[in-house]
Amino acid sequence: MLVVMKPAASEEEIRAVCEKIQAMGFRAHPMPGAQRMAVGITGNPGPLDPELFEGMAGVAEAIRVSKPYKLVSREIRDEDSLVRVGDAGLVVGGKELAIIAGPCAIESRDQAFRAAERVERAGARLFRGGAFKPRTSPYSFQGLGEEGLEILAEVRGRFGLLIVTETIDPVNCDLVEQYADVLQVGARNMQNYSLLKRVGRSKKPVLLKRGMSATLDEFLMAAEYILFEGNYNVILCERGVRTFADHTRNTLDLSVIPAVKKLSHLPILVDPSHGTGKRDKVLPLARAAVAVGADGLIVEVHPEPDRALSDGYQSLYPEQFEELMSETAAIGRILGRTMYPAVTALKG
Ligand code: PEP
Ligand code: MN
After folding, report:
1. What is the CATH number of the domain that holds 154?
2. Exposed, middle or buried by CB within 10 Å (0-12, 13-18, 19+), for 229?
3. 348 falls in which pLDDT band (50, 70, 90)?
4. Which ligand 1 atom is nearest residue 298's CA?
């Protein structure tokens, strides 16, 4: 259930609603909106009577939420959620497209710096790179671990890029959250419920990638775990699903973007790198992702893709990323979306 407060409701009236919910043994989730506050209720075993709240001071109405997911649903919040990253005012889900770029894995300081320099110059404001890599084979490169996180922190200091990096389990999250600006939960962990609960208790925003065979309901339910724990800063990411097609690594499901926009207020990005697995398909699908209404992109870029320790065949050369930036910016403009100015442009 959602208790919608009147625009002029006072702090005390909102507090009284939250206290009543808690006294009933349920959880109250205050959700501020542009016009008014709403308070979501979770943990109730069955439907509640709206009259329990509608007589209270400052309450406009109490609405039953029909979807199995509550906090991520548009029924509970009809405006788009804006997810703030870092403390310099970067927002995901607004008019500006969020572009995250960088190598699949951090391999060395030199590799990370070369990648960061090029993606920053091309206009990306967020840098990606795994320090902990969940790999299909135990013999494949597993990432540099904490050394990789330290390199990422140096990238932030040197280039002013915000850091997006993956956390692979609840214990590992204690370390990763000390370095990351955004905690990535990978496709393989979309239903790792203890990890979802752990990132749900973090103060850092979370980039939640869709599981390889997850339905839209399963994807939104995974996000619900994070919001339920109190972290409302969730960015969804479509990264392709497993199908019978063998011309690509995965099948990028771009139709999920308008479907998510209809059902949820959360922002959603597209990963055309894992979504296709082939370098020559990344640019066309990136263009399509922006056209279909994605709030941004996460793209693998490597200074020397042919020597990459992971996902080289889908990593762009830096020049290709520059092309991607200018073409997606042009498509975004038609739809009223803009790109953030590059960090160097900000510094003047
Ligand atoms: C990645 O971003 O490098 C990654 C492993 O992605 P996914 O979880 O989508 O496979
Ligand atoms: Mn990768």
Report:
1. 3.20.20.70
2. middle
3. low
4. 2
